[in-house]
Amino acid sequence: MAEANWYVVHTYSGYENKVKANIEKTIENRHLEEEILEVRVPMQDVVELKNGAKKTVQKKMFPGYVLINMVMNDDTWYVVRNTRGVTGFVGPGSKPVPLSEAEMKPLGIKTENISVDFAEGDTIAVVAGVWKDTVGVVQRMDFGKQTATINVELFGRETPVEISFAEVRKIS
Q1: What confidence tens digit (pLDDT) does each residue in 48-91 have?
Q2: pTM value > 0.85
Q3: Which residues contact 69 (CB under 8 A, 6 or more apart)?
Q4: Where in the chain is the domain with CATH 3.30.70.940?
Q5: How far apart, in whole angstroms, are the C-alpha atoms of residue 88 and residue 94?
Q6: Options 2.30.30.30, 2.60.200.30, 3.40.50.11540, 2.30.110.10; CATH of 123-170
Q7: Which of 19, 152, 162, 167 could serve as a FRET partner for 81 with CA atoms 20 to 30 Å apart?
Q8: How far apart are CA 169 and CA 117, in angstroms?
Q9: Over the stretch 22-39, which tens digit does the pLDDT of each residue have?
Q10: Helix and strand tally (H, E) in the chain?
């Protein structure tokens, strides 16, 4: 199988999240999970001063653009290119150009894969992030996104939570 790369897609301004949702829905409907791995709208925290009060809000880093980690072939190109709100891929002419390692570094996108010593059904402990000190059983693993889904108890109910491989360790 060909290697997945990050590509930049130009969208109508203000339609970034809608395009992301539409592409994710199409991935699910056409079973392209193995070819289109991730769709992102890069966000950054910005401190705004309104009425004398500081407030941290999330703003799009690149309004009008969506990042997609995918294996480029005719099917994936067609699906993305013909998604409502997409005006085209970024690159010379109609040829999409993948982002280089140097271009991806400031975006906080890590390309190295983390090897893990646990599998579905194993009990893991969360060692970082919002769910730190939580213990759960791995329900699902997504090696493309480098995440594990565990069930945690929230308000008396079992709730699935997606956690990065880097934030967990196996309990012996």
Answers
A1: 888 888 888 888 888 899 999 999 988 889 999 999 999 999 88
A2: no
A3: 4, 5, 6, 7, 36, 37, 38, 39, 40, 144
A4: 5-107
A5: 8
A6: 2.30.30.30
A7: 162
A8: 8
A9: 999 999 999 988 899 889
A10: 3, 11
